[in-house]
Each structure stands twice: as C-alpha cells, then as structure tokens.
## 1
Amino acid sequence: MSEPRNILMTRELTDEQIALAEELGLRVRIEPAIEIRFRDDWLSVQGAFRNVSNVIYAFTSQNGVKGFERFRKAGVDFPKGPVYAVGGRTAEALREIGLPALWPERQDGVGLAETIISDIEELYGGDDVTIFHFCGNRRRDELRQILSQSDITVMDLVVYSTELKMMKLDGEPDAVLFYSPSAVQAYRNSGGFQKGRKPELFAIGDTTARELSIESGRHVHVSPEPDTEVFLRYVANVLNEPVE
C-alpha cells in the first residue's frame, strides 16, 4: 500500500469528509484561509426594498444564503420574486430554507447573469426589474457588470464579510485545495507562492482556478464538480497518477 499523500485544505471539513479523504489515501491538514462574519444590522437592507415592485433574488454563494436567512429571521418583510442561484450547491442551501431556486448550466457569475437576462422578458415582459444580490464584501463584479450592460438594476446587499487570515504554512504538502479566490489571496499573503513551494494546486471551480492560475503562474487542476466529495476523489486520482 502506497504512503498517504499530504494535502492542505484551506477550509474546514466535516468528520465524514475527513474520513473519506483518509479512505482515499489522503492525509489532511486543515488551515482555514478565511473567516466569515455575518452582519447583524438589517435596517439598510430593509430600506433597499422600498419603492420596488418586480424583484429577482440572486445568490452567488452559500454564505449569501446564510446571510439572507439571518435577515429573514430578523422579521424583515420583503417582496416575493423568483430566486436564482449560481449553482447546485447554493440552490440546495436555498431549498433547505424553503426557497426553490433556478440555476444556470454554466455555474458562475457570467452564467447566472446570462440566465437571468434571458428569463426577464418572459417573466416580466420587459418591465423594470430590480435584482437583489445577497453577497459578501469581496463579491466579484461579473454579475453586476453583465446585468448593468443590459440596463438591469442591480442592488448588492452585503450580508457578510470575508476576512483573510494569516495561514501557517509549515512543511511541504503534496497538494493545496482552494475553495474561493479569497482563499487564494490569503495563501498569497501568507507567503504560499514563495519559498520554493511547488505543491499541486487544486481549485473547486473555474473562478477560483482563474485566480489561482494568475497568482501562481502554474497549472491548476479543477474539480469536475463544485462538490467536496467529488473534489477529494479527483485530488486522490490526480496525485496517484503515475509520473511519465
């Protein structure tokens, strides 16, 4: 039996996910790259809903869903409207709080914007629509830019903040796994792309992979699906491939 491969995770895993990694021959070290803080003042968020009629809700992260649920539990009224998610995992988080959501085949901000644009004419016949994007302070700009180019009003409702952490990067893992562009930035700020470190680099999706490729200047492996179990199996397969 081959020796376990050492992987550095930039976010927490569940006990079940750690057990799966061990079954796959992966020795996990967890060093969280970011910390999430949710807002607790909802007055400005509530004020954003005044004088709007046709609304669409857009979510580009599961933390955005968690922030929205805190907002809803605060007893704030908001108009009804269709709900869109960037991908299946975010849609699942919405479904768990009773909000079925649509999501695009291309699971990123560009795909989400294009799907919303194509649906607006059918849903509202070209009437004015406001998109409420529940997001974090480090949100990417693709969704807003594409929707704004189509003269669609977008309101970014920041319901959580992402704080970069200083990571302890002792040792030399065989691979580092990233879940967000913010995690890539935290790794960079912690000296992860210096000191001759050459682990294999893995990203949960295309957006993270683009950021990781720019920062590292190296090849990045991208998970076939934005799912941790699929991600871990993919990492194990890549690390165990024979070197040519």
Note: Strands lie at 5-9, 26-30, 34-38, 55-59, 83-85, 130-136, 153-164, 175-178, 200-203, 221-222.
## 2
Amino acid sequence: MGRFAVIDTETTWGDEVMSIGLVIADSGRFTPIEWKYYVLTPFKNHGGMYAHALYANGAMPDLECSRERAVGDLARLLSAHYVSELFAYNAAFDKRHLPELAHLAWYDIMKLAANRNHNPKIPRYADCHGTGRLKRGFGVESVYRMLSGEHAYCEQHNALADALDELRIMKMLNHETGRYVRV
C-alpha cells in the first residue's frame, strides 16, 4: 500500500516555524493513517498571526519541543511509513521553512486545486489567468468551500487541522498523487 504525507506549518511574526502538522495518508483512498502535531519551543511564545490557533478546539500537540527534536521525530515517522513524498498547499512556503526535509519530494496541492483545468468546481464566471489558474480566491478556505459546498467552512490555521483539510481537498479533487506538480 502506497503512502504519502500532507504537511502544514504555521509561523511566527519573525518567520520562524512555531507548529507543524503532518498526516500520513493512504495513496489509494486518500484517508489518514496516522497524524502528528508539533508545537515548537521557544517559538510558540514569539507570537504570530495564527498563534491563537496553536491549541484551537482543544488541540494538544503530540510533542511540544525543540525544532530539532520535532523534525527528528517527524523524519522517523516518515521513514517508518516509507514516505518520501510530501504534499502541501503552497508547498514552496512549507519547503522553504523546513529545509531539513528538502531531500524529500515536495508536491504542491494548490497548483491543481486553484486551476480550472484540474478543479471542475471552479465556477465558469471565476476570474482566471489564461493558464486556468484563479487570479484570486485560491487559498485553502475558498477552494475547500468550492469543492465541498460547505460555504460556512473556515480554515483554522492550526497546522494539524489544516493538514487534514488539505488532505480532504486532495480527496475531493480525486487526482492520483502522480498528477501533482513537484516543487
């Protein structure tokens, strides 16, 4: 059974990673197998646009620890599941913030989700570039609402909750992992 991972980070005002959410998923059914949530010290105390969401809805980290320990644990988890492919919405952002994982293959969910050639739920009236990419409204929240029809959906900006939502986006798009664009 093939597996991949979806990863999301939240950063401080100083652009340091303060939390990481990781979901290991089955590549055939796009269902979660295991997930981990890391809150990084001391960065959790540095503030950030979404610092309020670190423990949103009772979210408790699996590890609240240093970046080195979190990335080491994350690497062991990926290895234990034989995962070498990481998916993220706007993957260049997360990859840039996690250079320790640059040796893995990173793929961008947004490249398909925000393009009418790959996302049939983008309305015909949507303002798109000639390539089919949305000019605006291409964030997780807007795309999730389009795909699911859940117009009240709000992105939590909690790294684990967001990684799970990004996996749901992949499932709703219904593309094989091989269709995604590598960054």
Note: The CA atoms of residues 28 and 165 lie 17 Å apart.
## 3
Amino acid sequence: MSYSGEYLVKLARRAIETYLKEKRKIAIPENAPKNLFDQSGAFVTLHLVVKGREPSLRGCIGRIESPHSSLIQSTIDSAIDAAIRDPRFPPVGYDEIKSITVEVTVLTVPEVLNVRNPQDYFNLIEIGKHGLIAERGPYQRGLLLPQVPVEQKWDLQEYLNYVCLKAGLPSKAWTDLNTKISRFEGFIFTEKTPNGDIEQKKIN
C-alpha cells in the first residue's frame, strides 16, 4: 500500500487512544518506515458510525506540507487534534473511539496556479483529483480535501466558491487574481469499520 497508508491509519488510531486514555502524545516508533519521515502534509478525518445511520463527521484537522514536520509527525499531531481540538465538535470520549473510523489523507506538495484569467482554473482543476487552497495575505487561508466536492456533489465553480469561504473570503474571491489558488492531490487511507480492515479509498 503506497505511502505506508495502513501503518499511518493504525498509528493515528493509537495516537488518539493513547492521548484519550493517558493524556500523552506517543513518540514516533523507532521502526517506522523511512518514507514517512519525508516532508509531507496529512489530514486525519474521523467518522462516527452508528448502526442504522449514515456515518457522520466527528472531526477533521490536518497540516499542509511543512519543512519543520515529517509526514509521520503530522499524522500523530493531526490525529490528536481531530479528536479533541476540532472547534465544530466536543472532544471525543475514550469510550466513543470504538465507534469511530479513522481516515488519513496524505497530501502532495501544493502547487500554486498562476493564471492570467480566473476562467483558466476550469482547465487546471479536476474534481475528485485535486484538493484546493485559497489564500490572501498572511491570515486568510482555507483548504478543502479532494474528496469534499465529490461528497458534497459540487461542480467546479461551487468548489472554488466554498474554498474561498473556508478562507474567510467572499465566495467569488477566486475571480480576483490577488487571491492565490493552489491545488494538491490526496491519497486516502481509511478503516472500513471502526478499528477494522484498512483500504486505500478511491474518490471517483
């Protein structure tokens, strides 16, 4: 499994369970695959699974590629943050984690899309393949993972609108060339059931 995805998902679950039970962050395992020490971003997404209902989002936090953090460290930190620091939800309880699936999205390095006309974005962004980052200045930045527009059934214009809103910008800010739009790809690894088998998830 590319990017040692199964390893990352198991590590993310262990990081969450250890923190919830013992209030400590796990150390990076000494025998971790070497490619996990590359500089790469990661997002951890948690879904609550209740019998008879569709799985519901329970937390999602991550980190974009950084020269100061490896993929494995980003996964550990993002897993804990998704469980206890997502402002949209109360912290996950230790007994609750047994009903939650853990998903890790490994991000490629973001690529800034330099265009002369904002309409050119429609030739450079592919729904289901590219995640987006919108930013303006040092404080306004928003990110949407590549699976989000597929799950929400957005077209490309809606996708651009929502990533701008995520950055705290007007929805049409992408039509202003002062707004920087970047794309990236995401490789998704997820538990099929809480603490169950792990698969690489196809978006389309």
Note: Residues 111-184 form a domain with the Dna Ligase; domain 1 fold (CATH 3.30.1490.150).
## 4
Amino acid sequence: MTEQAQSDSNEERLRQSLLRGRDGDAVAYHGFLKALSAHLRAYFRRRLGAWPDEVEDLVQEALLAIHNQRQTYDAGQPLTAWVHAIAKYKLVDLLRRRAGRERLTDPLDTVPDNAAELFSTADGEAAEARGDLHKLLAQLPDRQRLPIVRTKLEGLSVAEAAIATGMSESAIKVGVHRGLKALAALIGGER
C-alpha cells in the first residue's frame, strides 16, 4: 500500500469513527478521540520543538474544541483539513499568549547593572509620594478625608465605606467628590 493510500485509509477510518460517534456510537467516538490524539500530538510536536511542554496542553485544548464543534463538521469535506484548521487556531492562540508574556518580561540577564539603584529609587519615590498624599489628606476635614481614604485608597465600596465611617452612602459620595476637588485645589496652590 502506498503512503498516499495509507493516508487516505486513515482519513476515512477517522471520518467514519467521528460520524458514527456523532450518531451515538460511544465506542467509535472513543476510538476516534484516541486516534486523533496521536495525530494531534505528532502535529504539535513537529511545530513546537522549542516548547515540548506545551504539546499535551495543546492536544487537550484541540480535542476539547473538536468535541465541542463536532456537529459543525461537514461530512463531504476532508476531516484532516477541518481538524488541522482547529489545531492551527489553538497553536496560534498559544503563540500569541507566549508572545504577550515574553514581551512583558525581560530576561534576568538583560537587567542593567544599576537595577538595584533603579528599584531603590522607585521605592523611595513611591514612599515620598505616599507621604505627600497623607500630608495633603491631613489638611481635609474628616467628612472629605475619610471617604477618600476608605474608597480610593483602601478600595472599599461606597456601602462598605458608609458602614466603616458611620456616614450615609450619599455623604460618602459627596465627601469623595468634594474632597477630590479640595485636593486638586491644594495641589494647584489655590488654597
């Protein structure tokens, strides 16, 4: 049997297993998934030589997508083309995720020699900014300062801030609005 004839035979066997599985034959569908797993594993291994740890995850993602979309397969079309299209989309998704993560991180060997100095400077500036903010907030009356501290700095909801301060929700909203306006005036030197 030629290689092409073997490939055509495998294609037809997979296609028939899927179709019988769609019609309710659980044994045929199990056989389809098992054979397809091996096919997908080889497909992804050829394309992910640099990331062999990703192969099994992609096989599972592709199998799940194929299972979820099995009713969309057109029996008049080649099965492998349909399967490869789904597998290709899963591969592209992985590459996009990896590219996004790698773009956000620099390898440790590219960190400049003065990194410790840069980080300590940033920490010092952040501490200085917090100190300045607290000095500005201290100049506000409690009915403006407390709502800002509770909602903007501590991240409480308006309802939670109202409970924590003993103020009404309306008073919290008004306090935040007026307090932010007063802070803007303080920063701008209008006061």
Note: Helices lie at 3-22, 26-47, 55-69, 79-104, 115-138, 142-153, 158-165, 169-188.
